[in-house]
Fold this sequence. Notes:
Layout: E1 14-18, H1 22-33, E2 37-42, E3 55-58, H2 64-72, E4 76-79, H3 86-93, H4 102-108, H5 111-120, E5 128-131, H6 134-144, E6 148-152, E7 162-165, H7 171-177, E8 183-187, E9 193-201, E10 207-209, E11 213-218, E12 221-227, H8 233-249, E13 254-265, E14 268-277, H9 287-290, H10 295-303, E15 316-323, H11 330-334, E16 339-343, E17 354-362
Helix pairs in contact: 1-10, 2-3, 6-7
The protein binds adenosine monophosphate.
The site of adenosine monophosphate has 13 residues, from strand 14.
Amino acid sequence: MSAPAPRPLSPGDVIGILGGGQLGRMLAMAAARLGLRTHVFAPAGDNPAFDVATRSTIGDYADEAALAAFAQAVDVVTYEFENVPARAAAALAAHRPVLPDARALSTTQDRLVEKDFVRALGIATAPYMAVDDAGGLARAVAALGRPSILKTRRFGYDGKGQATIRGGADLGGVFRALGGAPCILEGMVPFIREVSVVAARGLDGAFAAYDVCENHHEHHILARTLVPARVSGAATTAALDIARRIAEALDYIGVLAVEMFIVETDGAQSVLVNEIAPRVHNSGHWTLDGAAASQFEQHIRAVAGWPLGSTARRGRVEMRNLIGDQAAAWRDILAEPGACLHLYGKAEIRAGRKMGHVTRVISE
Length: 364
Ligand code: AMP
């Protein structure tokens, strides 16, 4: 059955959101501000989006009957995470438009497919090779050298499903440690900065990008985003152009984030794509306080078939994630003039868990 075509929604219509985490929560809040209702579908667990959605359903992504009932209760379906199973997306798309669509999901769920797609657009990536077994890993390491990074093709996030291969590594052991799953090996990129472009494409094909974000990770988790990124004008232009080309090639509807590396050779900066997230992204959280329309509002506008909002920045911005017990500092943050505190309402503080974030906007 082919997917129904997306159509512009009206205030009061219902946006279905797969996933009950903080991204779903902030999407639901943005929808409410625009007079749209939300219905969140998520498996049992701590689902902070349930606190703010109009309706919630606890269900499994493999339960096609539950998904069909959910789809029939909403006007359009979107999601807060890219690992929506293909079968779930197809079950939903039989009833309602799923945005971003199945092509965006299948392209971004598999690192090999994603990198092949990016390369086919003439956009640079790290050198990479597919690895299906220990012998393939040995051949890839011989070709790409050490250090290099082995990544599972599917289901990796925040550094999970990855291993750095250095001199002396037991290749068979490294491959087994990643579960023997299909992988890619990537050459190590000597980047000077990690950046992302958060952008949106509307139902009418309009494209709008926020300024380039500079991202700093700690323990493989995003810790801090600075905007605008401290990169050359040429790299900024190239990064924005890459995001537009990717969005157009996918005929994309919604917000996407393209994570990139900046490398410098003989004083000139160039841009390599690392990965594409077909959703709102942690590096775009600053837009809630630092941009005219936030990434969450922008995504809601896009999937509702409404005009995109302005991505104009309100100043120089710093966003810090509150990870684990860093969120215990909430009182001090509240006391700081100009600090914008966001807590996700998660029931339990755990090490490595994103509990909230704080944004500071400095007028330029
Ligand atoms: P990823 O899950 O692909 O976003 O990788 C997580 C982090 O690992 C990135 O944000 C980089 O800091 C680092 N990383 C990933 N791939 C490479 C690479 N090919 N070269 C250098 N660093 C990388």
